Each structure stands twice: as C-alpha cells, then as structure tokens.
Known about the structure:
The chain has 137 residues and is of the alpha+beta class.
Amino acid sequence: MNQHFIAIKTFEHNIECFCPDGDHSGVIIIKSGDIIEVSNERKYVSDHGWYCWVIINNYYSFYMSLDALDQFFKKEYILSRLDIELKLNYLNFRINLSLDEGDEISFKYHTKYLKGLNGLKMRLDNYINYIEENQLI
Length: 137
C-alpha cells in the first residue's frame, strides 16, 4: 500500500537522473498542499543508495532518494495523516491554554495555524478517499 503525505511548506527538490545523458534530471517545486504518494516500488542505485517511486498530485512521477524523503519529513516539509492529527491535537491544546491564560496573541497565532492545517488535512483526506473509492491503490 502506498504512503501519502502532504506538503505543508513550498520547497524544491533536485530530481536525479542516472542515465548516461542525464536528460531526466532537473528541479521540481513542490508547493504547499501538493499530495506526495510514495509507492512500494524501490530501486537501488550503486554508490547512491535507495530510491522510491514518488507521484506528485497523481500527475508527475519520478524516483526520489529515501534520504531526500527522510530529510523532507524531518524538516516537516511533508506530513502524513497521523502527523497532521497529532499537530491538530497539540494546536487545540495550545488554543485552550491561550484561552485559559487570556493570551490573545498566542490564541490568534495557533488558531490561524489550526485553520491552515485543517484545510491541508481535508485535502489529503479527500485525495485518499478518492483513491480508495476508485480502487486506484
């Protein structure tokens, strides 16, 4: 089963190509809200390591190194459905704490972040539901 992530920040990724002419290399900009689907298809490239087949917005696909994917995850450029749920839970806690303390600045900050993250969660959920309903997994 494929894993699904959503970009929460816009970032660039250098697509690597190991063909003799290197025609397939380039830079892709992954925007906030883009869905990143990581398939189970893996490939080992000597001297470079493991790569996995990645599909962006069910449209653009390429091999991405597992190291790059791991870095995007660690830097929180991308989140899984579970990570979003955990962040939403924490943000609700911070909003409640801000209300209890009467901290208007913290309340506005966390509320804005919560609204944005809820929108991204809904986008990811809709995509996953569409894939499941149409048996594209």
